[in-house]
Amino acid sequence: MRTRVKICGITRPEDAAAAVEAGADAIGLVFYQPSPRAISLSRAAQIIHNLPPFVTAVGLFVNAAADEVAEVLKSVPLDLLQFHGDESPAFCAGQGRPYIKAVRMRPGVDLAEQDRLYHSAQGLLLDSYQPGKPGGTGATFDWERIPASMGSRIILAGGLSPDNVEDAIRQSSPYAVDVSGGVEREKGIKDAEKIRAFMRGVERANR
After folding, report:
1. Alpha-carbon distance 41 to 9, whole Å?
2. What is residue 133's predicted lDDT score, i.e. its pLDDT?
3. CA 7 to chain centre
4. 151 pLDDT more than 90
5. pLDDT tens-place string over residues 89-128
6. CB count, 10 Å around CB of 2?
7. CB–CB of 118/81 below 8 Å?
8. Residue 182 reports pLDDT greater than 60
9. First CA to last CA distance, the chain
10. Residues classed as catalytic
């Protein structure tokens, strides 16, 4: 099965276009103001308006209140929500959209238990753990920690780049991979050639 790809932290229409042209299945828009990749509602709506059919628009939130999520959804027609904080299963399931739940791979985390708790999620996004940072650390974690039986539920993130994505997929067989900083020339600004190189790495792993 082909590994799906999400390019996250899109802030410019031209970067969304580069991701789509390279073959990405989804783009991620960050609605978390402390992030250098945070985006305004008007810019997010503009980017989604220009997406072709069958490219999923994902909105990333970190411990946002329900009214904040609702306010975004009024202006931005997101297909999928990504919760990257300490949101409860009930909160995640109650926002009116399908969702994925990020799990920071801190020592001792029980992925099977997280999967049971967030059974209503479309999948679990596994990210590196760094105290005080909800994501975007640029660091990898030990991919061997992912149980082989859970591959179809896993979106692999955390420090992926054109240089390591092929190995990451071969080792962990995730349903999808998620990249942000690994395809940037500076924070929040994507590099079209790095996106294409990342997609080539995914293609090699799928041969």
Report:
1. 14
2. 63
3. 7
4. no
5. 999 999 999 999 999 999 999 999 999 999 999 999 999 9
6. 12
7. no
8. yes
9. 10
10. 8, 127
Residue type, position 128, single letter: S
CA angle 111, 8, 106 (to 5 degrees): 30
Average pLDDT, the chain: 95
Closest by alpha carbon to 63, among 38, 93, 32? Answer: 32
Of 64, 45, 53, 65, nearest to 26 by C-alpha is: 53
> By the 8 A CB rule, do 36 and 17 touch?
no
Superfamily the domain 4-205 falls into: Aldolase class I (3.20.20.70)
Q: Among 48, 38, 41, which residue's Cα sits nearest to residue 13?
A: 48
| The token pair that represents 63 in the structure block | 């411990």
Residue entry with tokens 């390019």: 7
pTM summary value: 0.95
What pLDDT digit, counting tens, does each position of 35-62 carry? 999 999 999 999 999 999 999 999 999 9
**Interaxial angle between packed helices 66-75 and 41-49, expressed in degrees from 0 to 180 and rounded to the nearest 10:** 50
Residue pair 41/143 in contact by the 8 Å Cβ criterion: no
Assign 178 to helix, strand or coil: strand
Contacts of 14 (CB under 8 A, 6+ apart): none
